Amino acid sequence: MKKPLAVFLLVFLLFNLWVGVASAQATTPSDDEVNAIAKELFCPVCENTPLDVCPTEACKQWRELIRLKLSEGWSKEQIQDYFVEQYGARVLAEPPRQGWYWLIYLMPVALFGVGIFILYRAYQSMRQPLPLEADEAQPPASPSLSDADLRRVEEELNKRK
Questions:
Q1: Distance CA 87, CA 42 (A)
Q2: What number of CA atoms fall less than 13 Å from residue 114's CA on the CB side?
Q3: Mean pLDDT estimate for the chain
Q4: How confident is the model over 136-153, as pLDDT tens digits?
Q5: With 70 as the cut, is the pLDDT of residue 57 above it?
Q6: How far apart, in Å, are the Cα atoms of 38 and each of 50, 68, 98?
Q7: 117-134: per-residue pLDDT in tens?
């Protein structure tokens, strides 16, 4: 009777070890999960460098912080909010759509519209003929030469023949 009890205890212990290892692996976020969030954050120290590719030691620590927050059950939005609280909205790859940040989204559209308007006005002005001044309305008169000037021109032409 002791043998089945020993087998049962052994199976029970092995099962609990297996479940414990499996559950520990399930709570540790993968590099892909960490990089998915880090890709949407910019390094607060380096200019214009996404957190997922920044080689500095600080960024490695921040990626580990993301991993820790994910393992604690934090969502992507909560982690982003945490970084915004710590370093400001400049760490976000995509600025929030609120307050003055709306200008970032509206300015390209407005500038594009202004550019189209300028091109349209330039095209319209090229198609319209220029208005003529009163002096330009009549063709210029041919220059009149005096008889003496005509004789001199004829003499010069005859010399060259």
A1: 10
A2: 6
A3: 78
A4: 556 666 677 788 888 988
A5: yes
A6: 7, 13, 22
A7: 999 999 988 888 776 665
- Give the CA dihedral 68, 71, 75, 78, nearest 10 degrees: -30
Token pair for residue 129? Answer: 């003929």
Under 8 Å CB-to-CB from 55, ≥6 apart: which residues? none
Instruction: Give yes or no for a contact between 87 and 76, defined as CB atoms under 8 angstroms apart.
Output: no
Q: For the chain, how many residues are written?
A: 161
Give pairs for 73-82: CB < 8 Å, separation 24+.
76/36, 76/37, 76/40, 79/37, 80/37, 80/40, 80/41
100 DSSP assignment:
G
> What whole-number distance in Å separates Cα of residue 53 and Cα of residue 36?
11
Task: Say what the pTM is.
Answer: 0.49
| Separation CA 67–CA 40 (nearest Å) | 15
Say whether domain 18-93 belongs to CATH 1.10.8.640: yes
